[in-house]
Structure prediction request, 726 residues.
Amino acid sequence: MNVLGISALYHDSAATLVSNGNIVAAAQEERFTRVKHDQRMPVHAITYCLKEADLSKKDVDIVVFYDNPLYTLDRYLKNIAMAGDDSEEVIERSFDSMFSDKLWIHKKVEQILGENPHRKFLMCEHHISHAASAFYPSPYEKAVILTLDGVGEWATTTIGVGEEEKITIMEEMRFPHSLGLLYSAFTYFCGFKVNSGDYKFMGLAPYGEPVYEDLIRTKLLDIKEDGSFQMNMEYFDYQYGRAMTNERFADLFGGPRREPESRITKREMDMAASAQKVVEDIILKMVRHAKEVYGERIDNLVMAGGVALNCVANGKIKNSGIFKNIWIQPAAGDAGGSLGCALYASYNYASIKRKVCRPDAQKGSYLGPKFSSEEIRKYCTESQYPYHQIEQEELYEAVAKELAGEKVIGLFHGRMEFGPRALGNRSIIADARSETMQVKLNQKVKFRESFRPFAPSVLKEDVSEYFELDDDSPYMLLVENVRKERRNDSRLKEDLERYDYNMLDIVKQSRSDIPAVTHVDYSARIQTVSEETNPYYYNVIKEFKNLTGCSVIVNTSFNVRGEPIVCTPKDAYECFMRTDMDVLVLEDCILYKDEQPEWVETDDWKKRYELD
Amino acid sequence: MDKNEKEKKLLKEWAKSSYKSGNSFHESCNESYFVKREQDEKYIWEYGFESVPEIRDLLEAQWKEEKDMEEILTVILVTAIKNKPKWKVVSDEDSSEKSISESVGELPMYIYNF
Prediction:
């Protein structure tokens, strides 16, 4: 039974193929089209999924869409009614998308797969797609499920329970009251892009003080003890289709929105700290409520939805001990909905029995395309790019030596990751011990804002030697602190004042013996790497440890700012040549920058990628 | 000329007559803003329609006992059928629909992209 799950027409389109209840392939459309957050029908991702499974279009038994277009139509119309005299922009903004695309999603799919009277077309409730993506791949027979996102149909938050194949949503919060949209409103007001900028906004929070916390709680929100809340819509404009926030919001925070790309001031730092604190408090209240009401005999919490990518909040949930175990879908945003709805249809429509897998059924989230060594050598030879093919036993040591020499390495091997994080297969890696690496990577490799931290990959068995974490974090979804004995003394508040809130001066200061992955508050977004899940990446870090004694390296996604993570060897080579990376590793082939032919481009490639 | 101009005008008129404030912030709520869901609800359905009667059945089932929605039903049916996609097989070679990042300008459109 082959079930194709599709998420599309909102943002982060993706396709997932599930065969007889097993996840076979999943990929985001942006990786193929090179358009970040591409929302178009995932034609390329579908083609890839079928190829991976060696299936033809007629072999697809069920197609399932991750959202109910009729519920979305209902919300569209009721929003128009809520806007009353002011409805024009709401109508215009979504009219074509609603009536030409979403309502006709079944025909859109037919355009890709062709007509087939035997194929079933299903639609799945949006938050069930998220809930299913969190519960089914998790290693739990039974779990409480929390989904949190901007909005899907009407729901913005749901609490449910999963047991074997069954999922039941117990309660929900509804649009316009949304934790995702609240966070996005602050992201927008502080001059970052909604969605892709939410992550930067979270990274900004440790620089600030939560001085606006009370203001947010009293003027913008009414928060109940169970974490449910209402937003005071007098301060927001998104329900009218105009902007996230309005003039009243600006007045409340002492002036207009920060212009994108302009200097970040103390106000934005404090707003980030304040919003993060409120969001964490709300999530913790919800988790506590979910445990009390639905989890009396359940030790496991699973989460999905875009807000579940807030790894700082995830760390707080874990440390709270409310639930003994926690598992978060790595593709927690809408892309992961394709995976969730395909699994839900498999177990609840096709009646396939769910098998619980350990450590989980997500397969490290390595669910995308792979390129063989032969394909890579052919590509390099035909393109006349010099390379060195290295025997497997020597490869890891060769890469580790380059890392120890403070070289920046593009690492490309195995199947591409599904979800927003690079987990070692499409990653840029570097020496975490280097005091200059964070600035170098931000400015000369990633071309992104100087304040942004980098994440560590650490050998699973060594994680507690470096961080205040004694557990697995394979998907880089938990933030914990670097251990106290590894930290250097620093006084962030005094330094910020001394340097007039210039974050570059702050970032340059070493905060631990792994400074390149230690954020200004000593936190780190940790990826633990195990030999079972990713032997290649594990062996690279293991060899680095053998050489240096350190089992932590920097891991950042293989892309530049605004570019989707690389998918093919060609994408990887182009990114390598456009940046100050020193070495490119493509499977078992090593390419050195100083041996490559001169790289000439006819246009300004940076203009191809809209800044995120 | 916008082929949907008439339908958009009718939607605007309906919005004026059906206006309901979306801000209930100052209304009291005792304990919780969570809404309970029925426990035997269905979350997955077969989907598909080609003609006016088929989509009418789906929408009537969804909006039964919602008078405001009954008023706009005909407009929605006409709009849906007018905007039915023309048959064209799409391959990964010719996926050329405008991407969202090309079309939104400065505003984060997908938030409003119902």
